[in-house]
Amino acid sequence: EPEVTQTPSHQVTQMGQEVILRCVPISNHLYFYWYRQILGQKVEFLVSFYNNEISEKSEIFDDQFSVERPDGSNFTLKIRSTKLEDSAMYFCASKRTGLGSYEQYFGPGTRLTVT
Amino acid sequence: ILNVEQSPQSLHVQEGDSTNFTCSFPSSNFYALHWYRWETAKSPEALFVMTLNGDEKKKGRISATLNTKEGYSYLYIKGSQPEDSATYLCAPKGGGADGLTFGKGTHLIIQP
């Protein structure tokens, strides 16, 4: 069964460094998402992406964040200058169509630790 | 959609017993409700998507109901098994929004 994959599973970085989190969505899916969960808190929506542009973003997704689909398979989240509070589990998700009731399929997450 | 509440936060159930838990959300601007099952170190797994008031969905021993007028959904597990141990997340979705707003989840532990 097709699944969303994410790499790396765990990333440790120093404050102020740039990080890129990578995702390979399910191949025939058209909508892509990033979410994060800070330890002990709710899973929070960051951004959605369709047709090579951001379709929706939350207040969390500020200028430090960017997303890109550099080729036909990868979807990346870049954090330009990491802060301690960026430490979280980051989830990628994808969805087949634009109809709102379709499931979003999640990857296993990347645990980002900023020291 | 804000103010998504799930209760209880955690639940210990004996193997073989049935159980249920709740997701509450604002009833205005409702579009759809998603339930996910999340085991530690795995991907959250989509269980159900419900849109209509009175919807009932079932997958094996797990079922869910939806009341959009009063803003709640119940998830039921019949005859709990150890493999049901997981965190169950609900995520209502508002009209015009694509991102999901998750509750904190109900952490279910099935005791043999």
Question: What report would you give on this structure?
Answer:
The complex is a heterodimer of chains A (about 120) and B (about 110). Chain A is about 0% helix and about 50% strand. Chain A is mostly beta strands and about 120 residues long. In chain A, strands 2, 4, 5, 6, 9, 10 and 11 form a 7-stranded mixed beta sheet that branches. In chain A, strands 1-3-8-7 form a 4-stranded antiparallel beta sheet, with no helix packed on it. Chain B is globular. Chain B has strands at about 5, 10-15, 20-25, 30-40, 45-50, 55-60, 60-65, 70-75, 85-95, 105-110. Chain B is built from no helices and 10 strands. The interface of A and B includes residues 41, 105, 107 and 109 of A.
Task: Give descriptors for this structure.
heterodimer, A: 115 residues, mainly beta, 7-stranded mixed beta sheet, 11 strands, 0% helix, B: 112 residues, 5-stranded antiparallel beta sheet, 5-stranded mixed beta sheet
Mean pLDDT of chain A: 94
Main beta-sheet annotation of chain B: 5 strands, antiparallel
Mass-distribution shape of chain A: globular
The average pLDDT of chain B is 93
Distance between the amino and carboxyl termini of chain A:
37 Å
Query: Beta-sheet strand percentage of chain B?
Result: over 45%
* Share of helix of chain A, binned: under 10%
- Portion of residues in beta strands of chain A equals over 45%
Structure class of chain B: mainly beta
Number of strands of chain A: 11
What would you report as the Rg of chain B, rounded to the nearest angstrom?
13 Å
First-residue to last-residue Cα separation of chain B: 38 Å
Order of strands in the sheet with the most strands of chain B?
A: 1-3-8-7-6
User: What is the overall silhouette of chain B?
Assistant: globular
Bin the helical content of chain B. Answer: under 10%
